[in-house]
Amino acid sequence: MKESKKSTKRKKRQQTPNQYKTKLMGQIHGEMRRIAITEHPSCVCCGSKENLQGGHVIPKKISSNVRFDLMNVFTQCRTCNYLHQFKPHLYINWYIKTYGAESYNELVEKSKITKSWKIFELEELLERYKQL
User: Fold this and answer.
1) DSSP H or E segment with residue 88
2) Share of the chain above pLDDT 90, in %
3) CB atoms within 10 A of CB 10
């Protein structure tokens, strides 16, 4: 009798829920960047049209609640987005000048709430942002 040969093809690994969640978050950030650049086709801080990114007014690492809030993400060039870490007042001043101090204070208050995103919430958000 011949021994059965082992398949040389690698089995595709199933994504864990955390891997899937991370993938969804990345896709949402991509959609948010697209939306931000569509609304503001140049850096809101310096006006550059090069190396555009979606910059968070309240950094995403600080607040999970406003991480995916479109009122927290606007177009920034790579340089201004990097400088935001050290000189946040430049971006915050633009935000207040554009949307008002009340809007900024609401965003700050909202950012104080911790949010644990569920997969179905992320899926719904991704679909909503794809349609914008």
Assistant:
1) helix 88-99
2) 83
3) 6
Place of tokens 């609640």: 65
Domain residue extents for the chain = 21-122
Report the SS3 class of residue 80.
helix
Q: What is d(CA 39, CA 75) in angstroms, rounded to the nearest whole number?
A: 8
Quick check: 111 and 65 in contact, CB under 8 A? yes
- Sole residue written with tokens 């899937």: 20
Element (H, E) at 77: strand 73-77
- State the helix-helix crossing angle for 17-39 and 119-131, rounded to 10 degrees: 30
Tokens of 46: 């310096």
Residue 2 above 80 pLDDT?
no
0.85 exceeded by the pTM?
no
User: How many whole angstroms separate alpha carbon 93 and alpha carbon 115?
Assistant: 26
